[in-house]
């Protein structure tokens, strides 16, 4: 394994499901700024869109709603985006507030105006930067991990390499480029992207340099075609076949699988609960009393269906101390569902999964945040124009794997720094630096430090604004692995 790690490090670059609820307020979609939304609190006369009609509606007595002061909005804080109008219309249609999970799902993945659906939100000109965009070394190290796992799997002849929420596709491109010369491994891979955003699917196809099978220009996908309507795609980076799916369940079964989920789980909708004298109540999103003031958080007057179902399940896994001390809890049912599906695949088909995201090895309390143009914004401000992201509840994922009891085990979480360190990122940096220009060396060192460092940059001057400079992701981000029990502990997790 050590030789494999070393040779793999001699690689080489220089930085839904989805809601079916349509916008109630706009017939022309996200870009429409005019709205026909009535401003009164009367329910909309239109028939209910399908998912709204099927959702178990919350029985909420509006008169009993309580708006916690720390979650109120200042006057005029919310920007009246098309999505804000849609959310207000949805709340009016329901005749009461919606859950934070419903809000999050609409805001991120509504087909017409969801944050991820129609544009590129990544990079310095976007809203946030992720590890694969910071340095090529991230995707390369994940490639090393995947190749080692393939050896532990007994070098199967065919492997489904699945990435959940691939963003721009940068991680996969670096993985394929880095492992392309290890043909015994790279030629076994079939890439499956699970992606809800049509705009990102198109970018992923470009990043992977996809062409129609055979590479004939006439059959090469045109930009205006969705990947669903094009012939089978081949990545020119490594020759792997690439296909797209809306959720993991659509990816063919029966083939050993390696699954990668980097910053996917944090985008999955969470429910938020709060301990009150009336029991555990659920935080909900409502229209402000003065309708010109946008949206506000309220608490359900009593426990909701979600608190009875999801919170009860989550609390079964909590420690005595957590049960005694915690006042706010976030629960992500979709994360549990996806994890159960991963465990089942890995347990029955063989292979493993790598989940990298931010969070700690404990219950999540109150972590949901909005991010727009590289700044934190209030969760209810500019819905649809800001990302929403929540910490991942790693202990819950581990409990799900355990309860599935399908011959798969979870290892970790360990910090990103420990994970990348165990895979030899420092050797890779050394190799890259040897052939780099001065400018490239600086970029490589900065990228390395951002991936494995912790806290504010050490070269910060006292008078520098820490918010305007990068901080290390090495400790905040964690890696959790789920592997088939026949593989044994995966690289980086052997001592656990
Ligand atoms: C924060 S981005 C991370 C992107 C990428 N993994 C990276 O690290 O740069 C989340 C990704 O998950 C996708 N996504 C979010 N929710 C999804 C869902 N429910 N189903 C499929 N894809 C989803 C987004 O479109 C986006 O590609």
TrEMBL record:
InterPro entries, A to Z: NDUFAF7, NDUFAF7_sf, SAM-dependent_MTases_sf
Subcellular location as annotated: Mitochondrion
GO BP, sorted A to Z? methylation; mitochondrial respiratory chain complex I assembly
Q: Name one Pfam family in it.
A: Methyltransf_28
Q: Does the keyword Coiled coil apply?
A: no
Which keywords does the record carry? Methyltransferase, Mitochondrion, Transferase, Transit peptide
Q: Where is this region: Disordered?
A: 22-57
Q: What is the catalytic activity of this protein? A: L-arginyl-[protein] + 2 S-adenosyl-L-methionine = N(omega),N(omega)'-dimethyl-L-arginyl-[protein] + 2 S-adenosyl-L-homocysteine + 2 H(+)
PANTHER family reported in the protein's UniProt record: PROTEIN ARGININE METHYLTRANSFERASE NDUFAF7, MITOCHONDRIAL
Q: What does this protein do?
A: Arginine methyltransferase involved in the assembly or stability of mitochondrial NADH:ubiquinone oxidoreductase complex (complex I). Acts by mediating symmetric dimethylation of 'Arg-118' of NDUFS2 after it assembles into the complex I, stabilizing the early intermediate complex.
User: Belongs to which family?
Assistant: Belongs to the NDUFAF7 family.
Please state what the protein is called. Answer: Protein arginine methyltransferase NDUFAF7
């Amino acid at each position: 394994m050590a030789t494999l790690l070393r040779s793999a490090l001699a690689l080489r670059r220089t930085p839904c499901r989805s809601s079916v609820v349509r916008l109630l307020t706009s017939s022309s979609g996200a870009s429409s700024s005019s709205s026909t939304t009535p401003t009164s609190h009367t329910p909309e006369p239109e028939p209910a869109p399908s998912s709204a009609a099927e959702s178990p509606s919350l029985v909420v007595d509006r008169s009993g709603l309580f708006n916690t002061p720390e979650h109120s909005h200042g006057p005029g804080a919310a920007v009246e985006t098309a999505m804000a109008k849609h959310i207000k219309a949805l709340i009016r249609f329901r005749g009461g507030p919606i859950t934070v999970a419903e809000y999050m799902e609409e805001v991120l993945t509504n087909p017409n105006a969801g944050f991820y659906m129609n544009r590129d939100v990544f990079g310095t000109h976007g809203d946030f930067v992720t590890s694969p965009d910071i340095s090529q070394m991230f995707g390369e190290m994940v490639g090393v991990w995947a190749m080692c796992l393939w050896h532990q799997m007994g070098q199967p002849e065919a492997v489904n390499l699945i990435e959940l929420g691939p963003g721009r596709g940068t991680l996969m491109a670096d993985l394929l480029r880095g492992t392309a010369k290890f043909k015994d491994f790279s030629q076994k891979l079939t890439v499956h992207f699970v992606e809800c955003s049509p705009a990102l699917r198109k970018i992923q196809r470009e990043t992977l340099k996809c062409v129609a099978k055979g590479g004939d220009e006439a059959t090469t996908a045109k930009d205006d075609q969705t990947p669903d309507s094009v012939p089978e795609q081949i990545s020119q980076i490594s020759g792997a076949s690439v296909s797209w799916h809306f959720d993991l369940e659509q990816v063919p079964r029966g083939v050993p699988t390696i699954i990668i989920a980097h910053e996917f789980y944090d985008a999955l909708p969470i429910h938020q609960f709060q301990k009150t004298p009336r029991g555990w109540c659920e935080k909900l999103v409502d229209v402000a009393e003065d309708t010109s003031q946008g949206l506000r958080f309220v608490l359900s007057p009593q426990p909701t269906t979600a608190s009875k179902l999801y919170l009860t399940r989550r609390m079964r896994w909590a420690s005595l101390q957590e049960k005694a001390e915690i006042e706010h809890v976030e629960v992500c049912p979709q994360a549990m569902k996806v994890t159960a599906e991963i465990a089942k695949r890995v347990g029955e088909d063989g292979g493993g999964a790598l989940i990298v995201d931010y969070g700690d090895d404990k219950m999540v309390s109150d972590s949901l945040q909005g991010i727009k143009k590289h700044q934190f914004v209030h969760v209810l401000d500019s819905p649809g124009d800001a990302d929403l992201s929540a910490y991942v509840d790693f202990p819950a994922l581990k409990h799900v794997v355990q309860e599935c009891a399908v011959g798969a085990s979870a290892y970790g979480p360990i910090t990103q720094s420990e994970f990348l360190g165990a895979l030899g990122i420092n050797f890779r940096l050394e190799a890259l630096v040897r052939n780099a220009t001065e400018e490239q060396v600086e970029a490589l060192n900065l990228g390395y430090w951002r991936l494995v460092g912790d806290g504010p940059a050490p070269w910060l001057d006292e008078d520098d604004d820490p918010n305007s400079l990068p901080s290390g992701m090495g400790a905040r981000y964690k890696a959790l692995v789920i592997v088939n029990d026949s593989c044994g502990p995966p690289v980086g997790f052997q001592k656990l």
